[in-house]
From TrEMBL:
CDD domains: Mrp_NBP35. This is Cytosolic Fe-S cluster assembly factor NUBP1 homolog. One of its GO terms (molecular function) is iron-sulfur cluster binding. Pfam families: ParA (PF10609). Keywords: ATP-binding, Iron, Iron-sulfur, Metal-binding, Nucleotide-binding. SUPFAM superfamilies: P-loop containing nucleoside triphosphate hydrolases. It comes from the Eukaryota. PROSITE patterns: MRP (PS01215). One of its GO terms (biological process) is iron-sulfur cluster assembly. One of its GO terms (cellular component) is cytosol.
């Protein structure tokens, strides 16, 4: 499944192995013959290692720069506000890790013990452990130029070699699009039915175009999409009190897209100066930063309620 083509008709479907997208796919012959390809043995290894994680939240976007890392960081912070919850935050954006900055943890190093790599715990939130390639490289200014197999190997290590312990939520900040890393994480997590996809988009059509593909991809790979968070929905001016849609949705925005794709729209997060400030300070947004604080609290309730009912 790690080399799944973008337009894969899906294993076991009528056109499995026969579509143009199947040309060159390593699973083409088994799909054609109706056999199910042998599962990747790493799937079971990951499922065993993460058996004490109650819920995995994959934060995904079709397009880059829509605020996925910011949403992942603020969601992890919002979940950590309850000290009784144990939270993990995994940054698998191998070539552009943002979480050390967004968590104000630059320069931290990963320690290893007999039970594996220890996540780095946030100074203000001891119930929030973070893992990122940013902790493994000597300088955040060094470019990471790795080919797919090496990136996939590190993602596997993050899932199998990190001693996450007992977690209520593991939030995973994915790279944009259907890149190698993206395919790997979805494959490795396919043995964990407690995985939920949170899709981040802006209202702009360019972002929605890619998000539609992303939703289709999740549906094909069996990732349950809990819903969509529309980010940068509008800018509310604190001086004139006007609300301006900076990225107007020419096709009806995220709401219409969610209706069409039959996925819930969970949140509309405005553009707020406080979000950028909190990001640079590596702290959770609060009520002084604007309305987004309340929006993230509601998002936490959505996850809490879903998990209570389903897991
Ligand atoms: N709602 C918001 N209001 C104000 N600024 C925001 C908001 N959301 C994100 N930003 C800012 O937009 C920029 C891009 O955000 P971010 O890095 O989270 O995007 P991304 O989708 O993870 O990007 P990439 O695809 O490169 O990983 C950052 O400077 C961030 O502070």
């Amino acid at each position: 499944m790690s080399d799944i083509p973008e337009d894969c008709p899906g294993v076991g479907t009528e056109h499995a192995g026969q579509a143009s997208a199947c040309q060159g796919c390593p699973n083409q012959s088994s799909c054609q013959s109706g056999q199910t390809p042998a599962p990747d043995p790493n799937i079971q290894v990951v499922a065993d290692r993460l058996r004490n994680v109650k819920c995995v939240i994959l934060v995904l976007s079709g397009k880059g720069g829509v605020g996925k890392s910011t949403v992942a960081a603020q969601l992890a912070f919002a979940l950590s506000l309850n000290p009784e919850r144990q939270i993990g935050l995994l940054d698998i954006d191998i070539c552009g890790p943002s979480q050390p900055h967004l968590m104000h943890m630059q320069g931290e190093e990963v320690h290893s013990s007999a039970s594996g790599w220890s996540p780095v715990f946030h100074a203000d939130f001891p119930n929030l452990g973070v893992m990122s390639i940013g902790f493994l490289i000597p300088s955040s200014n060094d470019p990471i130029i790795w080919r797919g197999p090496r990136k996939n190997g590190l993602i596997k290590q993050f899932l199998t070699d990190v001693d996450w312990g007992d977690l209520d939520y593991l939030v995973i900040d994915c790279p944009p699009g259907t890149s190698d890393e993206h395919l790997s994480i979805v494959t490795f997590l396919s043995g964990i039915p407690r995985t939920l996809g949170l899709i981040v988009t802006t209202p702009h059509e360019l972002s929605l175009l890619d998000v539609r593909k992303e939703i289709g991809f999740c549906k094909k790979t069996g990732i349950k999409i809990i819903g969509v968070a529309e980010n940068m929905s509008a800018y509310h001016c604190p001086n004139c009190q006007c609300s301006t849609p900076i990225f107007p949705g020419s096709t009806g925005g995220a709401r219409k897209m969610c209706e069409d794709m039959e996925v819930p729209l969970l949140a509309s997060i405005p553009i707020e100066v406080g979000i950028g400030v909190a990001a640079d300070q590596g702290r959770p947004i609060n009520s002084n930063d604007g309305v987004s604080h309340a929006i993230f609290s509601k998002l936490v309730s959505v996850f809490e309620n879903y998990c209570k009912l389903n897991f």
